[in-house]
Design brief:
Blueprint (H helix, E strand, L loop, with lengths): L1 H4 L2 E8 L2 E2 L5 E2 L2 E8 L3 E4 L6 E3 L1 E3 L3 E8 L6 E4 L10 H9 L1
Antiparallel strand pairs: 1-4, 2-3, 4-8, 5-6, 5-9, 7-8
Length: 97
């Protein structure tokens, strides 16, 4: 079960709106940095648009997502990804299950 302990991390940074002088006001947004040991799929339920995490060395998958207020995203493990299928992590998780 140790494999499952560090599978998913989300770091959220709130960026409040601020005045940009003569350029007007910049809108507030939240910036999310997502890191996972398994590939992730991020889906916009309103438009059905999807994004996948970027695969790095050592089975780490990352994504940065900037969201405006009231936006919703669904995040799911993408176990059908070519980066997960046949990987050592898949074999270890299958052994646990």
């Amino acid at each position: 079960l140790q494999e499952l302990a560090n599978v998913f991390t989300i770091e959220i940074q709130n960026n409040p709106g601020r005045n940009q002088g003569s350029k007007g006001t910049k809108a507030a947004f939240a910036s999310l940095r997502i890191a996972s040991r398994v590939p992730l799929l991020v889906k916009d339920p309103a438009t059905e648009a999807t994004m996948e995490t970027q695969s790095l060395l050592n089975d780490v998958h990352t994504l940065r997502l900037d969201m405006n207020p009231q936006e919703v995203r669904h995040i799911a493990c993408n176990l059908k990804s070519r980066h997960f299928k046949g990987s050592e992590l898949e074999e270890r998780l299958a052994a646990v299950v």
